[in-house]
Amino acid sequence: MPEHRIGTREEWQAAREELLEAENEHAEASEALAKQRQELPWVPVEKEYTFDTDSGSKTLAELFDGRSQLLAYNIMFGPDYSVGACPGCSNLGDHLGAAVVHLNHRDVTLLGFSRAPIDRLQAYKERMGWQFPYVSTYGSDFPFDFGLALTEEQVAEIDELRQMIEQPPDWLQDWAVQVGTDLEHGLAEGPGWIAFALEDGVVYHTYTRMAPDRDFVVPYYLQLLDRTPKGRRNEFRAWRHDEYPDAA
Asked: Which of 65, 190, 192, 199 is nearest to 133 (CA)?
């Protein structure tokens, strides 16, 4: 017998209609938030940044690749990570490649940032089979200037972060092993979305949303699992797609 309430088709229909009303309200609120994001002021980027890419060094403006909008996800993969990028970020990365062609046709360049050197990003990208541009911010002030990474001094000043480092839960200790670094260096990397606009030769910073972001974590985790009969579980442990333990 399923461990769930069993009902009639009529009971299901009534409950479904009530849920639909709540879902529609949520969708309307989401549309309002999207409009509010677009109304944020644009801030000119006055500092010159260069990035290492598959085709050599590029400026921030050159990363737009001829388009007027740039959307990037900062993947947790610091210079000190000896194994690979954060498994949770890697779960998200698995979804990005398929979106590239659709965003490109809507005047948006989509890419990933990480602080590890470009040769390590290239090797990891090949391992994961990713099909989106993956750019290194190694040696640049860019991730620190835009809050995508923390300096050692900043890490020391954040009480919540210091507590996680000094008294880590089991799942966080497992995570450190998965990426191959100590927590102090591992948690200095900040996962999140960042967006820029390019207009009349000027690059503008338009949006940043750092994790945790419950509206968009990993598509399969929220958008898909939330629609399954048993839903998502509160799992802290994420696996790279080539490292899932054998089900047996």
From this structure: 65
Which residue intervals of 39-110 are DSSP H helices? 60-63, 87-104
Q: With CA atoms as reference, report the closest residue to 150 among 179, 190, 181.
A: 190
Closest CA to 45 of 147, 162, 145, 176: 145
Residue 115, token pair as written in the block: 């602080």
Q: With b meaning 16 or more CB within 10 Å and e meaning fewer, what string describes 116-154?
A: bebebbeebbeebebebbbbbbbebebbbebebbbeeee
- ∠128-134-139 over CA atoms, to 5°? 120
pLDDT of 193-204, one tens digit each?
A: 999 999 999 999
**Mean pLDDT of the region 210-221:** 70
Measure the CA angle with vertex 197, ends 119 and 210; round to 5°: 65
Domains and CATH numbers, the chain: 43-149+189-224 (3.40.30.10)
Q: How far apart are CA 143 and CA 72, in angstroms?
A: 12
- Indicate if the pLDDT at residue 127 is higher than 70: yes
